[in-house]
Design goal:
Blueprint: E1 7-17, E2 22-32, E3 35-46, H1 48-61, E4 67-73, H2 76-91, H3 105-116, E5 119-124, H4 132-146
Parallel strand pairs: 1-4, 4-5
Antiparallel strand pairs: 1-2, 2-3
Helix pairs in contact: 1-3
Length: about 150
């Protein structure tokens, strides 16, 4: 399928953690035309960075075919990782420039695989300032944490 024929999808993601480390949740809002899908989940012992990464991975994994994706994240960790750091990590065998293992390498590798399936435009949004998609993703991430205690 030509790139121009790919479905366009907008995604907002967020992660939440109650304690860092502690119980955490992730959430994602996917919008394609008039269709919307909400995703969320949680882990009992995790970090905020892991939840931010998991939200993006799960959102991209939910897409059944290659898409043109505009991905909105409020995590500078995810943005910096995808825009600046990941190419060097891959070149260095998933080690930092200081020769240390990359933190959360399992998730970065999974994210790299998911991103390769799509055309992704990364958009950073400031969190908690009224962006409707970001606010919904935040509520979903917190739902993921809340459902851990049920």
């Amino acid at each position: 399928m030509a790139a121009s024929e790919q479905e366009r999808v907008e995604i907002w993601t967020d992660g939440a953690c109650k304690g860092n480390p502690g119980p955490g949740g992730w959430g994602a809002l996917l919008v394609a035309g008039s269709r919307e899908k909400e995703l969320w989940g949680g882990e009992r012992a995790t970090t905020n960075n892991r939840m931010e990464l998991t939200a993006v991975i799960e959102a991209l994994r939910a897409l059944k075919r290659p898409c043109q994706v505009t991905l909105h994240v409020d995590s500078t960790y995810v943005m910096q990782g995808m825009k600046s750091w990941i190419a060097g990590w891959k070149r260095n065998g998933w080690r930092t420039s200081a020769k240390q293992p990359v933190k959360n390498a399992d998730l970065w590798q999974d994210l790299d695989e998911q991103v390769a399936r799509h055309q992704v435009e990364w958009v950073w949004v400031k969190g908690h300032v009224g962006d409707p998609g970001n606010e919904r993703a935040d509520r979903l991430a917190n739902r993921g944490v809340a459902e851990l205690s049920r």
